[in-house]
Specification:
Helix content is 72%, strand content 0%. The protein has four helices and no strands.
Length: 138
């Protein structure tokens, strides 16, 4: 159970580290970037999927994936928007993406459960028929 919570923690942290460029600290060396915030944003957007992949191997709670999906989609809408000084409606669009993601997961989960139910029903009927044939053969 500790592994699941550690994985959940890593998944949530993978989303939240992309906002560390907003903390407002400066570095002496920016690795040839224009500013510290650009360097930190590039670094954290590179590290974030790696941390997410590591956290996903610990079988985190599925609800924790809402955080990276929200953050990544908000960042995507911000990158594609005209106004780079403000997030604008990016959070609203990201919220809509999260809702669509949740609905998709619920739909797929229901479909998988239905398929498992029918597979179990068919295998049970096959087993009963095999048993009936075995009883009548004796």
């Amino acid at each position: 159970m500790k592994d699941r919570f550690f994985g959940t923690f890593l998944v949530v942290i993978s989303a939240l580290i992309t906002y560390t460029d907003k903390l407002g600290f400066e570095l002496d060396y920016n690795f040839e970037y224009n500013s510290t915030t650009n360097f930190i944003y590039a670094l954290t957007t590179t590290l974030s999927p790696i941390i997410l992949a590591i956290g996903a191997n610990f079988r985190p709670l599925r609800i924790s994936f809402i955080f990276p999906i929200f953050i990544y989609s908000a960042n995507l809408f911000w990158v594609l928007s005209d106004n780079k000084s403000d997030m604008g409606y990016s959070y609203h669009y990201a919220f809509a993406v999260v809702i669509c993601f949740i609905l998709l997961i619920l739909f797929v989960d229901k479909f998988i459960k239905k398929e498992k139910y029918y597979k179990n029903k068919v295998s049970l009927l096959e087993a009963l028929l095999d048993l009936k044939i075995a009883i009548h053969e004796k």
